[in-house]
Amino acid sequence: MGSIVKIMSYIKIQQITKSYHERRKPLCTDKSASSEILVLNDINLEFKKGEMVCILGPSGCGKSTLLRMIAGFETPSSGQVLIKDKPVTGPSDDNIFVFQHSGLLPWMTVWENVILGVRHLEEQERNARTQEYIDIVDLNGFEQHYPHQLSGGMLRRAELARAVAVQPEMLIMDEPFSGLDFLTHMKIREELVNMHEYLKKSMLIVTHDIDDALIMGDRIIVMSNRPSRVKLEKVLDFGRPRDLSRIPELNELRDELFFMLGVSYAV
Length: 267
What we know:
By secondary structure, this protein is of the alpha/beta class.
């Protein structure tokens, strides 16, 4: 089974808490009752450069909120997020967030969506880089198609091409396989792993799928129920590609994760 190791930090999450004001009025008349919902409670994590980390946890535990704070879209109630020892104060081109639902601009073609992030480059380099990343995600021939003309898997590939064309230091992905059919899910997962091996970029991925985390991750993090804390942090010292049926240690960890997340048997 994987083991916990000390890492040289690219990202540091230090004593993060996050709470939201309760918009609905409580039924009780006790004026001392708190109107805040504590989502994340004293989160301390570190990520190293080039690592693929998968974050698991029950729905509503704050996984996506944590990603948004790392990406600079939200601020913590207390604590701080550091990237390369500098506080995160807002979104950056170095850290690209791939949203759970399609973020492609519907009035633009695949080519126009991908080239958008590199429009500052000289024309020759801009065109070459756009085509390179469209080819990487196997969308050559679909450059002039609009989002509504693409399948779910193609949409996800186009989003990945747009994200990596910027050549960010880190990709942050919230449920990248959401809404995909089983076979497309498997293919996009394989492409993500291959892309990580090829580009050597840091990747943070929120997923509800334990098998995805075990197959993709260099490390997995399991969050508890709200108010969420880090329940488990485990390094996966296994090569890729991974076949869960042939690695007993991963099968044991899979059972442990199902139980930890409230399922008494693995399916």
